[in-house]
Amino acid sequence: MLSVPAELRATTGSSGKAPASDNHPVVIPPMPDFNGRALAYTAVAAMLITGVLQGVFQQWQLWLVVAAFIWPYTAYVLTRRTFLRKSPRIRQKMLIFDCVVGGAFIGCIGLVAIPSASVVLMLMFSCLIVGGIRQWMLGTGFLAATTSAALAVAGGPAESFHAPLITSIISILATGIYICVTAYYSHQQAQALMLAKTQIQNQREQSIALSHKLSKYLSPQVWQSIFTGERDVRLETQRKKLVVFFSDIKGFTELSEEMEPEALTELLNHYFNEMSEVALKYGGTIDKFVGDSIMVFFGDPTSRGQREDAMACVSMAIEMRKHMKIMRQKWRSQGIKTPLEIRMGISTGYTTVGNFGAENRMDYTIIGKEVNLASRLESLAEPGEILVSYETFSLIKDRIMCRDKGEITVKGFGKPVPIYEVVDFRRDMGPNRSFLEHEHSGFAMYLDSDKITEKERKAILSALEDAADRLRQEEDAT
Q: Is residue 115 part of a domain?
């Protein structure tokens, strides 16, 4: 008459103990629908037999005992071996039919109190577990309607609603056994759900930790597009207009001959870390590090428009140049006297961008003549110089002061390519510029007034006044 919900999934073994492995739990199914329904109908059969023997129910109702034993098998065949198995919510529908059967039974026995209450209790308990309040309300409605119809057919309720003691005890005991067994499997399911929740949480934390580790091998923009599903991981490319940036360190080769490999590695990693933060600040996609060179491009996987991409790239280059001067002073204080200068090249144009390589090993990068042009500009640049192509110059000239450097011949370009040197932001030119620098033997000053707070300004003024007094004293002494 009743069914235990299939949602009751226990992740415990036959002994009732938790599995030894958190990653691969042994999933044991709950008491099947057949077993739950068989248990419930067996309880009803026990009530019928006891009631007939004690003269509470009529003799012909013993045929209902046969039906009580046959129906669970019939329901199993209908729900597992026929087209009904594909019916949505088949479990809830079968339980509604059980409510109809239960109502007919209650009507047939004439509403004898305790057996009727036992059947109602089992049905309502199952409805609440299987489908919640909605299922309970539906089951109650069908149960009441069928009971009323059965009473009308049977000629009304019994002469007495009281049942003999033995019939009442059997009814209560059978109902109690069913509810206890069902509650046991519900408890097992609750434990299984808690264990599954813990496992899912652990796996989620492991996946997050792993994804963050993998993200260090990819540019943040590429990593984000992959993990959000915006980009699929397969061999595919597209043509896009990008801004390409190359830089390297002038003097690094000479320095590598003077320093131990461990110290050189530490210096290079510090340099890459500082420059990467600048690149990410302006939204650049870091392509690769090769030796002491850095390759960055703007416009993929996200773009703010050609003009803004070019402006962001040149702004990044200017800040890298300023930051290199500050790092050079720090390195000098650490005993590195070789003057290290950064030189940079930038070009803008159509390139092929996407995943290159093999199905089992891909590299997200760009190829094309604009990449070669940016690399060539970087190699032609003087220490501390930023060279840009004409395409880039045309996009930034209203906000960046540039100097014409003539033309160069580059493989892949039919005509000579005009190039320009980036001087500085137009707003920072003249007496109102925010960045000042003076570097001599025994003296170095890099001033970025936009980044100085009021408190720091007073300390800097005091330090400059002390330095000026010291220089005047030495000058007077000579």
A: yes
Instruction: Report percent pLDDT > 90 for the chain.
Output: 34
- Which residues make beta-bridge pairs with 366? 353
Q: Are residues 427 and 443 in the same domain?
A: no
The answer to whether position 321 is within a domain reads yes
Q: How far apart are CA 300 and CA 283, in angstroms?
A: 10
Domains: count for the chain? 3
Say how far apart CA 316 and CA 105 lie, in whole Å.
Answer: 83
Question: Helix, strand, or coil here: 145?
Answer: helix
Collapsing DSSP states into helix, strand and coil, what is residue 389? strand
What pLDDT, on the 0 to 100 scale, is given for residue 319? 92
Map residue 133 onto helix, strand or coil: helix
CB-CB neighbours of 468 under 10 Å: 10
Range of the domain at 470: 437-478
Q: pTM for this one?
A: 0.58
Q: Which of 419, 425, 391 is nearest to 404 (CA)?
A: 419
As a whole number of angstroms, the distance between CA 423 and CA 437 comes to 14
Please state at what angle helix 90-108 crosses helix 113-154, rounded to 10 degrees: 80
Checking 19-24 for CB contacts under 8 A at 24+ apart, the result is 22/198, 22/199, 22/202, 23/199, 23/203
Tokens at 316, concatenated? 């990044």
Distance CA 119, CA 143 (A): 10
Co-location of 264 and 348 in the same domain: yes
Confidence of residue 434 (pLDDT cuts 50, 70, 90): low
Please report whether residue 390 resides in a domain: yes
Residue 403 and residue 298 share a domain: yes
Q: Examine the domain organization and report whether 100 and 249 are in the same domain.
A: no
Whether pLDDT at 96 is above 60: yes
CA 124 vs CA 8, 128, 132, 337, 434: distances in Å: 17, 6, 10, 86, 78
47 three-state secondary structure: helix
Flag whether pLDDT at 232 surpasses 80: no
Residue in 229, 197, 349, 340 with CA at minimum distance from that of residue 274 = 340
Mean predicted confidence (pLDDT) in 429-455: 64
- CB of 51 within 8 A of CB of 75? no
352 contacts 283 by C-beta, under 8 angstroms: no
- Mark whether 263 and 129 lie in a shared domain: no
Residue 12: inside a domain: no
pLDDT at 282 over 90: yes
- Same domain (yes/no): 199, 333: no
Angle, vertex CA 420, rays to CA 419 and CA 425, nearest 5: 155
In this structure, the answer to whether residues 41 and 181 fall within a common structural domain is: yes
Same domain, 37 and 153: yes
CA distance 237 to 229: 17
